[in-house]
Automatic annotation (TrEMBL):
Pfam families listed in its UniProt record: DctM
Domain named TRAP C4-dicarboxylate transport system permease DctM subunit: residues: 20-432
Organism expressing this protein natively: Ruegeria faecimaris
Location in or out of the cell: Cell inner membrane
Function text: Part of the tripartite ATP-independent periplasmic (TRAP) transport system.
Family indicated by similarity: Belongs to the TRAP transporter large permease family.
The name this protein goes by in its record: TRAP transporter large permease protein
Lineage: Bacteria, Pseudomonadati, Pseudomonadota, Alphaproteobacteria, Rhodobacterales
One GO cellular component, as annotated: plasma membrane
Keywords: Cell inner membrane, Cell membrane, Membrane, Transmembrane, Transmembrane helix, Transport
Assembly description: The complex comprises the extracytoplasmic solute receptor protein and the two transmembrane proteins.
Main location: membrane
Molecular function via GO: transmembrane transporter activity
TM regions (residue ranges): 20-46, 66-87, 107-131, 152-178, 184-205, 226-247, 259-278, 290-311, 331-359, 371-392, 412-437
PANTHER family for this protein: C4-DICARBOXYLATE TRAP TRANSPORTER LARGE PERMEASE PROTEIN DCTM (PTHR33362:SF5), SIALIC ACID TRAP TRANSPORTER PERMEASE PROTEIN SIAT-RELATED (PTHR33362)
Length: 442
């Protein structure tokens, strides 16, 4: 019924349906997403005749001609340097010292270090790979089944796009014309809420199955362990400190904060003698490969968004959905369902560039704050990182350990449920994502 209403409202023809069919077919054939988006967008423009094909090249350029996008490669490079300098292991030492007194201490430390890494790199896959290599073997030695250990790392790494600074928030801010710094402020509480929900879920599961025992220690012993860890690795927190203080104080833009973080991390690597000039080619190539996936998608999204807007797809979607029900809580639930389903089959970047312009008018129609909408969207898409069939983090940890993706996904179910609950809280409680915002954004 929804699709029939939508079709009648927009009066779509083969100039819409054929490109959509081709897009789905190319994705199913494992063609790169940017190529699928570009092919569909160009075909849509040619068949509709609404926009001269000569303007496509210009749209490709303007799609990535944004200063804010410079922050993306900088944060990715910071994450690579962080791993190669060994600073990420200092995060793990401090996280382990913080949680060593709890039942399931190293599991909790794994979740915390995922959050720490997320606060620097802004990438979930990078976090899953870096933290997975450091922790999965030790989690298994501590008593965790290997599939569950993999699921724990995969879930914790979801914070890569949820805790600011996040590449996903930079992209959605660019697509919808919202300041990335504002989104970082709004994402602070939701990101921490996701981290705590994963941590608490692990503690509950560990209490039920007794995977890992807790250390019996006095307060003095715990403080002593924590003090030694901080004394040994305090300097690792200079980098996230610069990023957070610079962005949240307004002294640095996200791009400037990313550039500063790269320089400081490199200098620390040279001082510690854990980084050399010979490491630079591999680091730059690794970062370039990640950027080579993200930026073409953003570039080709510009002509696609133009074609969809000319056809009236976003407006038609709003009209058809609100024609079925005008209950805001139902419409919010519908948006969440669409986002989680999309996150299960496609990566975050194409989902943002395709769905954000379509769902944003619906959120506006029910009076949802645009900042709250962005936070809800990214958090809902984050659930898709640990859900089949795509589940990027599942593939990353499976590639590291050789464990079956289906076994990891089965053990990730409790984390999917806890993250879904946080998504609902964000969607129905605006204060969670607007607490730290200036009044003009509330």
């Amino acid at each position: 019924m929804l699709w029939q209403t939508f079709d009648q409202t927009v009066e779509l023809g083969w100039d819409f349906y054929l490109p959509v069919i081709i897009f789905v077919s190319l994705i199913a054939l494992a063609v790169p997403v940017w190529a699928a988006i570009g092919t569909s967008a160009i075909l849509m423009l040619v068949m509709s005749g609404d926009l001269p094909l000569s303007l496509v090249g210009e749209k490709l350029f303007t799609g990535i001609d944004a200063f804010a996008l410079t922050a993306v490669p900088l944060f990715i490079l910071t994450g690579d340097v962080l791993v190669r300098t060994g600073l990420s292991r200092k995060f793990l030492d401090v996280a382990e010292a913080l949680t060593c007194f709890t039942k399931g201490g190293f599991g909790s430390a794994t979740v915390l270090v995922c959050g720490m890494f997320a606060a620097i790199s802004g990438s979930d896959a990078a976090g899953a790979a870096a933290v997975g290599r450091m922790t999965i073997a030790r989690l298994v030695e501590s008593g965790y089944p290997r599939p569950y250990a993999c699921a724990l790392v995969a879930a914790g790494a979801c914070t890569g796009i949820l805790i600011p600074p996040s590449i996903a928030y930079i992209i959605i801010g660019l697509v919808l014309g919202i300041s990335a710094s504002t989104l970082f402020l709004a994402a602070l509480i939701p990101g921490i809420a996701i981290l705590l929900s994963i941590l608490i879920t692990n503690l509950i599961v560990n209490r039920i199955y007794a995977y890992e025992g807790g250390g019996q220690m006095t307060m003095a012993e715990w403080l002593g362990n924590l003090g030694r860890a901080l004394k040994s690795g305090w300097y690792a927190f200079i980098v996230p400190g610069i990023i957070f203080y610079g962005i949240f104080s307004g002294r640095l833009t996200p791009t400037e904060a990313g550039a500063t973080a790269v320089v400081v991390t490199i200098i620390m690597g040279f001082i510690l003698r854990t980084l050399s000039l010979a490491d630079f080619p591999a680091m730059l190539v690794s970062s370039a490969k990640v950027n080579g996936v993200i930026l073409p998608i953003i570039a080709f999204s510009a002509p696609l968004a133009e074609a969809l807007a000319i056809m009236g797809v976003p407006q038609g979607f709003v009209t058809s959905v609100t024609g079925l029900t005008d209950e805001p809580w139902l419409l919010i639930l519908l948006m969440i369902g669409i986002l989680i389903a999309a996150g299960c089959v496609m990566e975050t970047t194409p989902n943002i560039v395709i769905l954000a312009p379509i769902l944003k008018p619906l959120a506006d129609n029910i009076g949802m704050n645009e900042i709250q909408f962005c936070i809800m969207m990214i958090t809902a898409l984050g659930v898709g990182f640990i859900t089949p069939p795509l589940g990027l983090n599942l593939f990353v940890v499976s590639g590291i350990t050789g464990e079956s993706i289906l076994k990891i996904a089965a053990r990730a179910v409790p984390f999917v449920l806890c993250m879904f609950l946080v998504v609902l809280l964000i969607a129905y409680m605006p204060a969670i994502s607007t607490t730290f915002l200036p009044e003009i954004y509330k």
